[in-house]
Amino acid sequence: MSVSTEFSMAVLTRPQGRNADLGGALLQRGWQVTECPALEIQPVILHDVQSLATPDSYDLVIFVSVPAVQAYHQHLSQMHPKYVWPKDTHIGCVGQASGQAIREAFGQDLSLFQPDKSADQDSESLWNKLIAHIDSIRRVLIVRGQDGRDWLASRLTEKGVKVDFYVAYCRNPATWSPKNIDMFKTWAQSAKYPVWLLTSAHAIKSSLAQFREHDLVQWAKKCCFILTHPRQETVLIQGLNKLTTCSRTEKSLSMPKILISRPLQEEILSNFEHFRDNHRID
Fold first, then answer.
1. Angle, CA of 54, 120 and 29, to the nearest 5°
2. What pTM was estimated for this model as a whole?
3. Where are the alpha helices (DSSP H) in the chain?
4. 42-171 to CATH, choices 3.30.1330.60, 3.40.30.10, 3.40.605.10, 3.40.50.10090
5. Which pLDDT value is given to residue 2?
6. Is the backbone of residue 215 left (phi > 0), alpha (psi -120 to 50) or beta?
7. Phi first, then psi: what are they for 142, rounded to 5°?
8. Which residues of the chain have pLDDT under 70?
9. pLDDT for res 202
């Protein structure tokens, strides 16, 4: 395989442990892969059974992410080691990875609402699945970090559904390692611009803070970014604009190149290859 030396650096920012499969696939395609988690994910410490919301109290439990599934499963196993998911409690999620994690944690024979693989992996697509069954859903538990899925909660509430939130994990900004900081500064000095994968608004904001702290904002504006939802583009562009001191004309000339990808590995890989094969930094 012929490999471009100008565009063969990938920076993966998913939390620790979530980059291995994609990183391996990129390495096979000749990419230099740097793992640089933007967020640190830690399950909430559960102290007593009274603080655990169990599925049997709800018609539907919605998991916002893979960490939500993993942390909630850990809590259930901690307080109820032999717990079996009740057959009358449905499960919802917005992504294919979350759906796989749900089945691995709670079993294959579950009633699972999730967007089709070909659809956007977001709250709107999940809502389109739920709306046909809304008359049978009276109580919903949304398992999440400190925040998230407020739009979906509002739609459910408008239909008369009682919505509770369960904070299963903490999501905190990560700090770049000294090794990665040195590497990014070397790339900046050498006018080398990697392709970044950012998969949430929280990850974008954390990365922006690191760009600012290490005086890498202007460099970042010449990098390329793969994002996993159209709304993330606004977060990234507005964040970079707030951090820069250049003129309006210079801002418009130096905005990063961005591709929007569904969070499916084959699609993300295709977008990495698109950047390498079709784009060059001026």
1. 105
2. 0.83
3. 20-28, 66-79, 96-106, 123-130, 150-158, 178-189, 201-213, 217-220, 230-243, 248-253, 265-278
4. 3.40.50.10090
5. 39
6. left
7. -105, 115
8. 1-7, 245-254, 279-282
9. 93
Taking the CB of residue 159, how many other CB atoms lie within 10 A of it?
12
Tokens 């999620």 sit on residue: 93
Amino acid letter, 185:
K
Q: Which of 248, 247, 268, 249 is nearest to 259 (CA)?
A: 268
Give yes or no for a contact between 9 and 32, defined as CB atoms under 8 angstroms apart: yes
Helix-helix angle 201-213:230-243, to 10 degrees: 20
Q: What is the predicted pLDDT for the residue at 4?
A: 41
CATH class assigned to 9-37+174-278: alpha beta
Each residue's pLDDT tens digit, 103-129: 999 998 888 999 988 887 889 999 999
| Structure confidence at residue 149 (pLDDT) | 85
- The number of residues in the chain equals 282
* CB of 273 closer than 8 Å to CB of 1: no
Instruction: Identify the three-state secondary structure at position 241.
Output: helix
Residue span(s) of the chain under CATH 3.40.50.10090 come to 9-37+174-278, 42-171
Instruction: Give the C-alpha separation, 281 to 265, whole Å.
Output: 25
Predicted local confidence at residue 132, as pLDDT: 92
